[in-house]
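Q: Start with the shorter request: fold the first protein.
A: Done. Sequence, then structure:
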Amino acid sequence: MSRDSADGRRRPHSVVVAAVCVVLLLAAALLVRHVVVQPFRVPSASMEPALEVGDVLLADRSTRGTAQRGDVVVLDGTGYFAPSDADGDRYWVKRVVAVGGDRVTCCAEDGAILVDGTPLEEPYLPAGTEPSGIEFDLQVPEGRIFVLGDNREDSTDSRHLLGAPGGGMIPVDRVVGEATRIVWPLTRSGPL
């Protein structure tokens, strides 16, 4: 009577209980990854010093398909920064400099990037970094964003696609989520 309960029903075997728990935990992890947050590893130096090669960050999936000026976002660059998924560079991390309706210009007399005629304050740029070595003057269409890496001298971003279809502006629906915090390595963990 060791496997029967007091009311005569059989208790599930401990292996079955463990298997059900594992399946539920995996389902919860997948739900969190696709609805709440998703981890990404930073593959390049294009966002230094804010993000370093090898950092693991979390993207807030509740913000997918949205972007505001100044946000650091993870975006699907397939067909824009990467010609196809086969290139292995599907996801990119960049800073949103301008959104639909903004006029973005490089550069003012002092070298600053202008958004709607106002110099963009960029305290995140590494010391001595020129805001852009590529000149541009464009209006960002509604539903698109203009993105740059913080490490402008080592970043492929909207500036490099100015002559391509879409003119360097990425559809906002390509935003996977806002990068909110570094989780690895532990010595760098914290909010962005």
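Q: Next, the second protein, separately.
A: Sequence, then structure:
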Amino acid sequence: MNILILEDEQRNADRLIRLLQKIDPTFIISGPMTSVKDTIAYLQTQSSPDVILSDIRLSDGLSFDALKEAGSPIPVIFTTVYDEYAIRAFKYNSFDYLLKPVDKDELAQAICKVKQYALNTTEDNLHQLIEAMERSNYKYRERFLIPYRDGYKTVSVNDICYVFTENKIVRLFLRDGTSEAVSVSMDDLEKQLNPEHFFRANRQYIVRMESIKYLGNYFGGKLVLRLKGYPDVEIIISKDKAPLLKKWLDR
């Protein structure tokens, strides 16, 4: 069986490859493809895989945009950090989904399902899936449940000014000047937060568009960014990311 992996986080891709090799050492594994652009190029120039293991968000957009370009219908197993309420649209014949971190037994079962029902896959299946996701507005995270005293409290995504990580601790910095630690990685947060409103500035920072107070030029083609309510925070944007940030803001 030929399997193509679409995943922009190397750690997750490596885990999928290890699990697949344990399930069946004869699997021929391609990828990971980390972007929509590279995936489209692969699908247009290489032989079609028997199944695609695909994250929803790639480095430059949604994987659906790449899957539309497949020359023939290919069974897809989606891997995602979202719970079932957000991905009920995947309930289509010959489609499946797995929640991260992917479990070996669940992955094996999904591949078995593909082997049994792949002949029923049609191009209409993918079109129906894409249309359903567009109608449901692809739900992004709206709040966080935070331990508080002897119970819990919620923090709305709308109250986040920026996200910062240091020493493997991720904190949400809020508009009221307080902060809360969360047990979610920056890579997963980047995918869970709506890219219309949040931008991954660098490895340590995710910023909210409405919180940006100042954007200026810096040395070597870099940019410097400052935030409302946090005058001591100065975020440096790399030369490579600078045009992406300016394009994100200039809409």
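Q: Describe the second briefly.
A: The two ends are 44 Å apart (CA to CA). The chain has two domains: 2-135, 143-249.
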